[in-house]
Amino acid sequence: MNEKTIIINLGSGNSNISKFVSNLDIVPYNNVDIICDVTNLPFKNDSVDLIINMALLEHIPNQQEVINEIHRVLKPIDASGKGGIIYSYIPFIQGFHASPSDFYRFTIEGTKEAFKNFTLKEIKLGSGPTSGFLWILQEWLAIILSFGIKPLYYVLLFLIMLVTFPLKFLDMLLIHHPKAKNIASGFIFIGEKK
Questions:
Q1: Domains in the chain: how many in total?
Q2: Residues 6+ apart with CB under 8 A from 136
Q3: How far apart are CA 106 and CA 103, in angstroms?
Q4: If you write DSSP's letter for every residue of 23-39 in order, what string do you get?
Q5: For residue range 113-133, what is the model confidence (pLDDT) as tens digits?
Q6: Do 159 and 107 lie in a common domain?
Q7: Taking the model in full, what pTM does it have?
Q8: DSSP string spanning 145-177?
């Protein structure tokens, strides 16, 4: 990585991965360098080396348009045989989480289909089955135990998350199970522009 390498973090929020990464979001958070809509990226065709997007696509109503836009701006394979890379975290078993909206979930096969215009480098579990299970269980318990009282729901959800958090360490073992993909919380897709 050098100063000429163009790396974009789409939907960065307030995160700041590195000084070499430009943060892009629709909201002007403190660490955002570029404010724009991800369906219309302000980059020339074939100009970006790496695009990172972590839990972005579920919040976009026209996610395929964003994936096509990512493909447009990534560099094609050059003489050395390397092209622009997409690194994307995609949710699967997760509860509703608006930011500002929440539209989609992706199976592992759905992820491959969404990124079919990329050469698949790797697809793996980004967060395991325990994380997916706990997300749903924690919400369910908070709903049941709050008796429809919204402030109580939030307090209970926080307490339940705190108490059950250590169970997430089971994912260190379960993430390697061949069937873990069936109920994983999310996937990481790494692809290269064809």
A1: 2
A2: 93, 95
A3: 11
A4: EEESS--TT-SEE--TT
A5: 999 999 999 999 999 999 999
A6: no
A7: 0.91
A8: HHTT-HHHHHHHHHHHHHHHGGGGGGHHHHTTS
